[in-house]
Design brief:
Distance between the termini of chain A: 39 Å
CATH superfamily of chain A: Fe-S hydro-lyase, tartrate dehydratase beta-type, catalytic domain
Radius of gyration of chain A: 17 Å
Number of domains of chain A: 1
CATH topology of the largest domain in chain B: 60s Ribosomal Protein L30, Chain: A
Low-confidence stretches of chain B: none
Strand order of the largest sheet of chain B: 2-1-3-8-9-10
Oligomer: heterodimer
Structural class of chain B: alpha+beta
Mean pLDDT of chain B: 97
Helix content of chain A: 25-40%
Largest sheet of chain A: 5 strands, mixed, barrel
Strand order of the largest sheet of chain A: 2-3-6-7-9
Largest interface: A-B, 51 and 55 residues
Distance between the termini of chain B: 18 Å
Helix content of chain B: 25-40%
CATH class of chain A: Alpha Beta
CATH class of the largest domain in chain B: Alpha Beta
Order of helices and strands of chain B: HHHEHEEHEHEHHEEEEE
Strand content of chain A: 25-35%
CATH architecture of the largest domain in chain B: 2-Layer Sandwich
């Protein structure tokens, strides 16, 4: 278990060094995207309008998060910003990684085999931030640089955060096909089968 | 009367502020207890973050989780409390104000147009359940419920011949199915019997009971313990990264069933189990009894 401090833009080389179980902190730019933002970004890319996406995502970290924010004067302040359940994005994430070349997906609860495969193929990792730890996450977010697609609602908008040592995150899916959640659930299945026989 | 209405609104805003920022003592104790038995470094790190987060949120009075939930009220309205159906409007107004003042994340989405009114209210939301009771007091319990834990709610119809064995089976299969998704360690609320609507209501209501309080029926209390041990033995652990604690507690509430059905509802409360109760006298004296705060 090694500890890494990454800066955005994150290179493929940075990502390939990471192994499942390592601990990672990110400094730089992370962009929130949930269900609706994933859908809109991919719809634009599929219809050849990729330049209409207001931020270039290559090398950045995508954060599955819908923050609590408040507007003070002209500036947005982040009040609380923990991760949301990543599994909802499983259907669209492989294409998202391929299309936008993001290097990190941050969330909680993990992702499935298709995303694991895409991370292996294109060089990305999944950073597990403790679910619900919204006050801790907010403390690492130094500034709201931009916000786009507010018409989707505050939780679903694209929030562009400047972060400093955002973490700790566990590398729960690495770019070599390892997925801690799948290992844990495989053991749980075996144990469950054992228990079911004794009921 | 206008004065009493204002007091109710103010007290409910305060209730929401406390509930969103401070964990109930039973949950905090259960988390500390669970943290103390973990051995894996991943599991330990999750508990460390959870407990530190709870401390920061409480100290700085900011929501402990960014998902401040869809809000549900469970009300006991005394026969001689002077405000009656107007109470619905007061609770809705309190939610609007709390959303601005705390602030809360606006979470209500129109399923057809995807529009978000921005104030945590909408059709049938906040959810309000009113029970009429003797006396002249008003008791309001609030449970804001995050989407991550509601996303994984389960409903089962167990063949009645399978009975309690079937109940155990579906609960364990449900936990395997939802695994890391709902921010474990969690509280598992189980409803048994009744009708399709009632069984889910009971499952959710089970989450209102403190973790350290078992069902008053000793046989059901034993079943709660047995299920908690079995769930934890799956080893899914905090945040699904492996470990000893997945369920902080299992709470069962039940109703008589139809001969042809054995319904089971499962509601999950994430570790950020936000709940609290406010009591208001007919003269407007208010106390948040769950957190020991006089207003």
């Amino acid at each position: 278990m090694a500890e890494y401090y990454l800066k955005t833009p994150i290179s493929e080389n940075d990502v390939r060094k990471l192994r499942a179980g390592d601990v990672v902190y990110i400094t730089g730019i992370i962009v929130t995207a949930r269900d609706s933002a994933h859908k809109r970004a991919l719809d634009l890319a599929r219809s050849g309008k990729i330049e209409e996406i207001p931020i270039k995502l290559e090398g950045l970290a995508v954060y599955h998060c819908g923050p609590v924010v408040k507007k003070v004067g002209e500036e947005w302040k982040v009040v609380a910003a923990g991760p949301t359940t990543s599994r909802r994005m499983e259907k669209v994430e492989p294409e998202f990684i391929k299309t936008f070349k993001v290097r990190a997906i941050i969330g909680k609860g993990g992702m499935g085999p298709k995303t694991t495969e895409a991370m292996k193929e294109f060089g990305a990792f999944y950073g597990a931030f403790t679910g619900g730890a919204a006050a801790l996450a907010a403390a690492a977010i130094k500034k709201v640089r931009e916000v786009h697609w507010l018409d989707l609602g505050i939780p679903e908008a694209l929030w562009v955060f400047e972060v400093e040592n955002f973490g700790p995150m566990v590398v729960a899916i690495d770019s070599h096909g390892n997925n801690i959640y799948e290992d844990v659930m495989r053991n749980a299945r075996a144990k469950l089968d054992e228990i079911l026989k004794t009921l | 009367m206008a004065n009493l209405e204002d007091r109710i609104i103010n007290a409910v805003v305060e209730l929401l502020r406390i509930v969103e920022t401070k964990l109930p003592s039973d949950v905090l104790e259960a988390l500390k207890q669970a943290a103390s038995i973990e051995e894996s470094p991943f599991a330990k790190a999750q508990f460390e973050a959870i407990l530190k987060n709870a401390e920061v949120a409480s100290k700085e009075s900011i929501p402990m989780c960014q998902d401040t939930g869809l809000i549900g009220f469970y009300v006991k309205l005394g026969d001689d409390f002077p405000i009656r159906s107007k109470l619905n409007d007061l609770l809705i107004e309190a939610v609007r104000r709390a959303t601005q003042e705390i602030p809360l994340r606006p979470n209500t989405i129109d399923p057809w147009t995807h529009k978000n009114p921005g104030d945590n209210t909408g059709r049938h939301i906040p959810f309000i359940h009113i029970e009429l009771v003797p006396g002249d007091e008003l008791e309001i319990t609030v449970m804001p419920k995050g989407g991550g834990s509601s996303y994984v709610a389960q409903f089962y119809s167990v063949p009645p011949v399978e009975g309690i064995k079937g109940l155990k089976r579906v609960v364990l299969e449900a936990i395997y199915k939802i695994g890391p998704l709902p921010c474990p360690p969690v509280i598992v609320g189980i409803g048994v019997g009744g009708t399709e609507d009632l069984v889910m209501f009971l499952a959710k209501k089970a989450l209102l009971r403190p973790i350290n309080k078992r069902n008053e029926n000793p046989e059901i209390a034993k079943l709660e313990e047995e299920l908690r041990e079995k769930i934890n033995s799956l080893g899914i652990g905090p945040m699904g990264l492996g470990g000893k604690s997945y369920a902080l507690g299992v709470n069962i509430e039940w109703a008589h069933r139809h001969p042809a059905t054995f319904l089971v509802g499962i509601a999950i409360g994430c570790w950020a189990m936000r709940r609290g109760t406010l009591r208001i006298s007919k003269d407007g004296e208010a106390e948040i009894i769950s957190h020991g705060v006089k207003l």
